[in-house]
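Entry 14. Structure prediction run on the chain below.
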Amino acid sequence: MPETDMKLVVVGAAGRMGQTLVRAIHDAKGVTVSAAIERPGSPFIGQDMGEVAGIGPLDVKITDDALTAFAAADGVIDFTRPEATVEFVALAAQARIVHIIGTTGLSEDDEKKIEAASRHARIVKSGNMSLGVNLLGVLVRQAAAALDAADWDIDVLEMHHKHKVDAPSGTAYLLGLEAAKGRNIDLKEKAVTVRSGITGPREEGSIGFATLRGGGVVGEHSVIFASENETITLSHRAMDRSLFASGAIKSALWARDKKPGLYHTLDVLGLSS
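Output returned:
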C-alpha cells in the first residue's frame, strides 16, 4: 500500500451525505479530501468545502470541474443520483482511478455502463456500504436457503427519510437479492413491489417489498420470514450516516491497489463467498 494519503474526490459534496463523507475523510487516517464536486450552477460553487461541512477551512474549493479533479486524484466517492453516477464512472475509467458507488436506483442500462467502465477503473459498488447490512445479507441468504419456499414467505420492509427519491431502497433490493440467491431464483421474476386493491392470494416463492418514508430516518431494514406458525425477523437500523461514510472510505483504501474490475462491499469485507 502506498505510504502517501489517498486523495479522494467527494461528488455531491454539499449534500447531507457529501458533507458526512468530507467530515469522515478529514477524521480518517490514510485519506484526504483532494476535491469537492457539485453540479453546475450550485450556489456552493467557490465555497470552501470545510466551511460548508462545518469543520473549518480545508483549502478545498467546491467546483463543478469533475474531469480536472479526477485526473489529480486516486479515487472518488459517489452517493449521488444515477444520471450523475454514469457520467462520473466514465470519467473515473478515463482517469483509471478508484470509484466507490453508493448510488441507488440504477437502471439496467446504468449497470451496463458501470460494468463497462470497470475494465479501466477499480469500482466498488453496493446498495449499502455498511458492515452490518452486508453481514445481514449473508444471514438472509443462509436463512432463505434453509427455509423451504412452500412453507416460508419472505418480505423486505424498509423505512427512510422523507427526502429519499427512490423506492424500494437499494439496500432493500440488496437484501432481496440475497434471499433470491439463497433460494436459487431470479428476483426479477419473484419480486412483488406493489400490493394494492384485490391482489388475490400470495404466490408461492414470491419476495415482497414494503416501503415507508417519513421524518429523518437514516435507514431501517427488516427481512421477515413467515410460516403458518411462526415468524423470524432479521433487521438492521442505521443510527447515523457516518457508518456509510466509514464503509466507503474502507472500500476506497481496499481498492487502491487492486486490478481494474467491478467489486462489491462483500469483497472488501472478505464475505463474497
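The mean pLDDT is 95.
Filed with the rest of this week's runs.
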